[in-house]
Amino acid sequence: MMxxxxxxxxxxxxxxxxxxxxNVEGLAFDSRKVENGFAFFALxxxxxxxxxxxxxxxxxxxxxxxxEELPSELNSSIVFIKVDNAAKSLGIMAAAxxxxxxxKLKLIGVTGTNGKTTIASLLHQMxxxxxxxxxxxxxxxxxxxxxxxxxxxxxxxxxxLNKLMSEMVDAGCDYCFMEVSSHSIDQNRIxxxxxxxxxxxxxxxxHLDYHHTFDAYIKAKKQFFDELKPGAFxxxxxxxxxxxxxxxxxxxxxxxxxxRTLADFKNRILEGHFDGTLMCIDGKEVWTHxxxxxxxxxxxxxxxxxxxxxxxxxxxxxxxxxxxxxxGRFEVIRSVDGKYAIVDYAHTPDALKNVxxxxxxxxxxxEQLICxxxxxxxxxxxxxxxxxxIACEFSxxxxxxxxxxxxxxxxxxxxxxxxxxxVLSKNKTLTIADRxxxxxxxxxxxxxxxxxxxxxxxxxxxxxxxxxKQHFDDKEEIKKAFGII
Length: 485
Prior knowledge:
eleven-stranded mixed β-sheet, Udp-n-acetylmuramoylalanyl-d-glutamate--2,6- Diaminopimelate Ligase, Chain: A, domain 1, six-stranded mixed β-sheet, single chain
C-alpha cells in the first residue's frame, strides 16, 4: 500500500481530476485483476485498448484511473490522471510501488536478435558459481538464486518485473541479469528500471510482424541504450554493422567486443570440436564447453560484461572454462549406432545460418548433414523462405516441418517456406508437417556419423497448435527416434 499523492510527482501528469489524497492498495492494467482501492492503468496495446475497460475496473473497485484519454463521464469519487503514455507511467509507478528494487540490484540487460538467453543465463551461472546471489529473467525461465519459475514472456510486464525484482532483493540477490526484448522496449515494459549495464549482441531479420520495418526494429533496440544513465556501461558487438549505431547517443560508458577488429575485448577461435572450443580471449587461452563462432561472441560478451562489472579478468576466465551450455542451445545427442543430433533454438535466418555454418566448419564432409526446420505461425512471414533457402544451402537433406503453428494452417506456413527453395534443391527437400514424423524420418535417413540439426524450438517443451499448447520436447522426440529412451 502507498499514499497516491506521493506517486504523482514521478509521473508527468497532463491533467488531474479528483482528490489524490488516497491510498493505493495495488496496481493493475488488466481489469480482471482489479480489487478495491487499486489504481487501474488503461494501456493502449497492440490488440486491446484498456480505455474500453475503465468502467469495468471502476465496478471492480478501482479508485484511481491512469489513462491517456479521459472518459466523457467522470465519477466524482474516482481520481482520474491523464498522462501522455500510460505504459511508461505504469513502469515508473510499479517501480515506486515495489520500493524501486532495481536500484538495490546490479541490473544488467541483454538485447539483440540472437544470443540474449545464452549471455544472460551464463552471467547468472557465473556469478552464482563465484558465490554471489543473483536473479535471472530469460526466455527459458526466471530464477531467484537457484529457485526456478516458468517464463511467460522474454521480458515480463511492468508489474511482474518489479515484483520479481523485489523478491530477488528480499532473497538477498546482489545481481539481476535480464533479457530485454524489442517488444518490451517499445511497449515501455522496462520503464522505471535502473540498469547498471547493457549488452548488444546483434540485430538481424526478425519481429517484422510487430515492428513492420527493419529501421523501426533497430530504433527500438537503440532506445534501450539511449536511456541508460551515466555511470552504467554499454557493451556492443563491434562486428555487427549496427553495433556502433546502438551506442551513438548513450550516456553510459561505451565498450566494444570483437572477433574481427580492434575492440576493448577480443576473442579468436584456436580449435573447434563438437564437444567444445579452445579460445584466445584477450591473449589468454581458455577451453570452453561451447561450440561455434556465434558462441565465441556470446562467451566474449559474458567476459566483457563481467570485467565491466568489476570482476577480475583472470578469475573470469577460470569461471568461463567451467560454464555449461544453456538448455536447447546446440545440445548434442548421440545415438547408440553413432548418429548425432543437435537441438538448437535457431528460429531466425541468421541464427539458423550460424548453427549450420558452425556444423559445416567442424564436420569432415564425408557424412550427411540433415536439417529439420520449420517456422512459427502468426509471426514474421518474410523470414520463412529465407530460412528454407539457408537450410538447403548448407545441408545434404532438408525436412521442412511444423514449429509452433499457433493459429495458422501448417500447410500454409510450409508453402511459404517452399517458396525459398530453388530448382536444384527440390530433390533434397522433403515436407512433413508432423514434427514427430519429421524427426523419425531424419533418423531413418541418417547413417552412422551423420548429423541431424533440429532447429527452431530448442528448450521449449510444447508445441502450440490452434492456440493450444501440447507437450512436445525435441530432445525427447529425437531420443525416442534414436531408440535411447
